[in-house]
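Aim 2 progress update. The chain analyzed this quarter is reproduced below.
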Amino acid sequence: MSEDGHGNSGRENGGHEQVPSRQRRRFPGISSRAYEHPADRSALVALRKLSGFDTVFKALSGLLPERSLRLLFLSDSVRVSDQQFSHLNDMLRDACHILDLEKVPPMYVTQDPQPNAMCIGLDEPIIVLTTGLVELLDEEEMRAVVGHEVGHALSGHSVYRTILLFLTSLALKVAWIPLGNLAILAIVTALREWFRKSELSADRAGLLVGQDLRASMRGLMKIAGGNHLHEMNVDAFLKQAEEYEAGGDLRDSVLKILNVLPRSHPFTTVRAAELKKWAESRDHQRIMDGHYPRREEDKDTSVTDSFRESAASYAGNVKASKDPLMKLVSDLAGGAGDLGGRVRRGFGGFASTTPQDQPSSDDQPPTDAPGRNTD
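Predicted structure tokens:
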């Protein structure tokens, strides 16, 4: 039970075994800035600066059939309420109470075996859960997901998510906008990049609502590997993320970029690693202690300062990254002496090693880094 808020008893509801009530900290007046990932803010700033985005945004804002969208879910999905999926309704109200979101958004469950959830809407957010997700997750895992979607609503992500949804599914119908198909593709690509980053922010919101890191991790593992927790291990799952980031050479870095471009969400192991890192950070602890930015201060926030903080965070992540491409960027910024030789040796010269591990002669053939997986 959240402090001074809602809570669930240890009953069973709709076939879902619920854990006993426990207190959860509430965050009155919390600003979305408290949990937003710096990459989310940076990507959104970059998106808004993209040539033609304002034109598309204004055009679609007036044309998108949002009323039709709401009627579609009302007519062909199940609206969560005290009478329908009441355990989800309790979670939704609890999540809004914890994050101090005054107006509880409508939530629907729609028939789809693919586990998924989304928060959409231009005027007001709507939360949609698929049956595949509802059937996959236990009570505490679902609580983190509902908090994730409420975080999207509090951050105002639903507007851009709706634009992305319609641009990707109705691309032919917006082809008349005088920007050309390449410009539309650029906007879709930029929107996807932003949305992947926004998922990292919403994962943090889900943790603030659920206040159970293990449940958040379990949910991400289930989304990746199905309902087989007895076959999975959190530490091994997180090690996958580390291997993914550090493994291979520059060619693999390029393939990672190409693999993620068509995706709406970051890779699940990456999300788990990012969330665990934030859960162990001082920023998270300060929020839990009641020290966080307030919504009433948002109007006084400098966009320039926010962008500067985001850039600093990016720079720190690049410097600490084990990814070969990110190491190259860091080396370039630091003026590493052997870069010319590594470029001349080709992609094989960018294996995941430090510059001193590389041969000093440019004429020597490239070698793989020690311990590199060549499977």
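Residues 278 and 284 are 6 Å apart (CA to CA). The radius of gyration is 22 Å. These observations will guide the mutagenesis experiments scheduled for the next reporting period.
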